[in-house]
UniProtKB/TrEMBL annotation:
Coiled coil: none annotated. It comes from the Bacteria. InterPro entries: Metallo-B-lactamas, RibonucZ/Hydroxyglut_hydro, Sec-metab_biosynth-thioest. It comes from Ureibacillus chungkukjangi. Residues 17-231 form the Metallo-beta-lactamase domain. This is Glyoxylase-like metal-dependent hydrolase (Beta-lactamase superfamily II). Keywords: Hydrolase.
Length: 322
């Protein structure tokens, strides 16, 4: 086995702590860099210290995806150790800091939220929040990693592009030792969530749940003995965890179908989340919007649901709903 050590770092998210991993390869590698907060920073330093290491021993950081609980402390690490190389998916840097992409992203989400049925005020509020990034100022990606690439400094490890949770998600697999580092792609017992990212300007948005189901089938074929996730426990039965995710997705799809039946077979996205998550969705509207948009993508792909735009808002119906 390649030596891999797990560092538990505090977040203020309902999902609990986030895990970074130290891989003792040819180059000492940190996978992901926690959420930017003082407690997490102390935990990172203490965790390294317990391994007999300090920040200056880290030679490279591989980022699984752009979310702030995985990239938050990259800047702080770079301040202490400017020689660290950063590796990530080819779109991570664009998503995090390309000004023209971020401006377009806010525009894209404002329209998407309006089409979902949100009020103009809420659409603007959440579109701005989605576009606002403040945790990757100093850092730049030194080299991009694509599907099938070897990981520099980690002989035997290969990159698998695992889109769905985000549009820049990569996982790392070592065929020799059957170890799998999967970020937020597969999290045991917890629904990791599907998030939308704006496409590049002028392109169609991705259908993340369809990408996700596809990538789960690729991961299912890996003979992984041990899987290290960004959250939750270390997984010794990867296929069991994958089945858990697929069950969750099918259950959610059935709930959406039942909700459409209940709402006389015609509802906006907002009406669906209001019915499904009454009293819960207001605080984290976009999480639920992404959840349901992606399920509706899947149901449209399966020819179970169709969408029609009325006055700029999508109205969803079951094809055989009468
Ligand atoms: Zn994530
Ligand atoms: Zn995460």
């Amino acid at each position: 086995m390649q030596r891999v050590e797990r560092l538990e770092l505090t977040t203020n998210f309902p999902i609990g702590p986030v895990y970074s991993y130290v891989v003792f390869g040819e180059k000492l590698t940190l996978i992901d860099a926690g959420l930017k907060n003082k407690q997490g920073w102390d935990e990172l330093n203490k965790g390294l210290h317990l391994l007999g290491l300090g920040l200056t021993d880290i030679e490279q950081i591989v980022i699984t995806h752009h979310h702030n609980d995985h990239t938050g402390m990259v800047d702080w690490i770079l301040e202490k150790n400017p020689s660290v190389s950063i590796y990530a998916h080819k779109d991570t840097e664009m998503i995090l800091k390309d000004e023209s992409y971020l401006a377009w992203s806010s525009e894209f989400f404002e329209r998407l939220f309006l089409e979902f049925g949100l009020t103009k005020e809420l659409a603007i509020k959440w579109a701005y929040r989605k576009g606002h990034r403040d945790y990757f100022q100093l850092a730049t990606v030194d080299e991009v990693l694509q599907d099938g690439d070897s990981v520099p400094g980690l002989p035997g490890w290969k990159v698998i592009e695992t889109l769905g949770h985000s549009q820049d998600h990569i996982s790392l697999y070592c065929g020799d030792t059957q170890q799998f580092i999967c970020g937020d792609n597969i999290i045991k017992g917890v629904h990791g969530g599907i998030f939308l990212d704006a496409p590049k300007q002028g392109e169609e948005r991705a259908k993340p749940l369809l990408q996700y189901l596809n990538n789960l089938e690729i991961c299912r074929k890996l003979p992984a003995k041990v899987t290290y996730s960004g959250h939750g426990p270390i997984i010794d039965n990867l296929n069991g965890a994958i089945d858990g995710h697929i069950n969750n997705i099918e259950n959610r799809a059935n709930r959406v179908i039942n909700t459409l039946k209940k709402l006389d077979n015609s509802a906006t996205g907002l009406e669906i989340i209001q019915d499904m998550y009454r009293g819960r969705y207001e605080k984290a509207v976009i999480t639920f919007v992404f959840e349901i948009v992606s399920v509706l993508d899947m149901l449209q792909e399966r020819n179970i649901v169709f969408a029609e735009k009325l006055n700029g808002v999508y109205q969803y119906r079951l094809i055989n709903g009468d």
